[in-house]
Amino acid sequence: MALTASKLDGARPWWRRPITLAIAAIVLAALAWHFWPAHPSDSGGVPGAKAPGKGSGKGAGGAGKFGGGDPNRPQPVSAAVAKTGDLNVVQTALGTVTALRTATVKTRADGLLQSVSFLEGDIVKEGAVLAKIDPAPYEVALEQAVGQLARDQATLANAKVDLDRYQKLLAQDSIASQQVDQQVALVKQLEGTVKLDQAQVDNAKLQLSWCTITAPVGGLVGLRQVDPGNMIHGSDANGLVVITQLDPISVIFTIPQDTLPRVIARMKAGDRPPVEAWDREQKTMLARGTLTATDSQIDVSTGTVRLRASFSNAQGKLFPNQFVNVKMVVDTLHNAVIVPTAAVQRATQGTIVYVVNDDNTASVRAVTLGATEGESTSIESGLKAGERVVTDGVDRIREGAKVEVVVPGAPPQAAGDASKREEFRKRLQAMTPEQREAFKKKWEAMTPEQREAFRKQREAAKSGS
Question: Fewer Cβ close by (within 10 Å): the C or N end of the chain?
């Protein structure tokens, strides 16, 4: 049996009708917001909105929420003049700070560590006393060696007296020559014994001197590895302490093998390239030095070669095993055409710049880039010195577009004096984030005349209210 329309309506869920009405209301509100003309006082301060009675439709300037001005009006841009000058060709790399001399202090005589004469973290000079070992065993050994030497020296002296007596008796033919020969051999034997005893004395003195441990190099003393009261040996792996030379200090870094020929050519000419060491964020220069040596081979796995640069480190800004950013001046370009790096853009046809012509129109120019140093880039071809290039505002221009070169950082005209700037700030704070973004975009797109007209319109609306 067929159902009637009233029965069908009764069968629909009760919650569908309110949802349908809500959706329709949202759609109508969105359409009204998009097409309804906005008065400046009701538009949240967004420039480009038009007051009632000033025209309607999308053709009127500023009509509608997203209305705009004349598309052919000059666009405000910032520009810089290409100039000639010298530009350094800088090679950047990651480097590791490496001490020129590092020594692990070890004892040369085994014994009890009696005292330590340094503090951890001290800067010591080469030859400074660091520690002392109990010298008593070595002093006893020295006395024994001295005693034995004295005994053998006395025996040698007696043998020499006997030899002299025997030689006189032989001259009188009172004794056999064999007895004299035996005495000569005995004297030589005792002379060898005395020399051996003297070596034993010298060795005992040397062992005794090793009881005083001195610094083999000057530098920073690290953490102590052994405390006084412990037995130390020359075979201990960690030693007593590690001393690291800090001034001067070096940095080891790598550069591509293609850059190596220019570096070697400068070094052979006696011109050592200057090198700078910067912190990890490349905001602070830590030290300035010179290149001192290159490695003897290129690493075939990476295609790079290691280099060493030396730095004066009196302030201690460089520390062993510290990672730094290295900047080395490989070469210097003379009379190069230089522009700000911000002017260089990337496009499908390669690297380009926007040139401001004499008639204040913008034209796209393909260029060939050279070296870059900081915020400056050299142009090898495609641009001449004296031409103006756009550095800011390229997103608002195209080929042949009219531009207006403005001074960067100029205050907005709508700000006016202090009271007007305060009012302007309060209105910006009262806007929603979306309104502020729309205001910013439309304000940047307006010409100075449009900005002045908008300011007067706002003042008129305020005085009329």
Answer: N
Q: Whole-angstrom Cα distance, residue 308 to residue 296?
A: 12
The full DSSP string for 12-29 is S-TTHHHHHHHHHHHHHH
Nearest by Cα to 125 from 189, 218, 208, 253:
218
Q: Contact at 8 Å (CB) between 175 and 148?
A: no
- Domains of the chain: residue spans and CATH: 18-71+413-465 (no CATH), 76-88+334-405 (2.40.420.20), 135-210 (1.10.287)
Phi-psi domain of 350 (left: phi exceeds 0; alpha: psi -120 through 50; beta: other) = left
pTM reported for the whole predicted model: 0.59
Q: pLDDT, tens digit, for every residue of 334-388?
A: 888 999 998 899 888 889 999 998 888 889 989 988 888 878 898 988 888 889 9
Each residue's pLDDT tens digit, 223-236: 999 999 999 998 98
Residue 246: name the closest of 97, 104, 99, 120 by CA.
Answer: 99
Q: Are 317 and 286 in contact (CB under 8 A)?
A: yes
Both tokens assigned to 64: 């509608």
Q: What percent of the chain has pLDDT over 70?
A: 76
Question: ∠ at Cα 270 (268, 274), nearest 5°?
Answer: 105
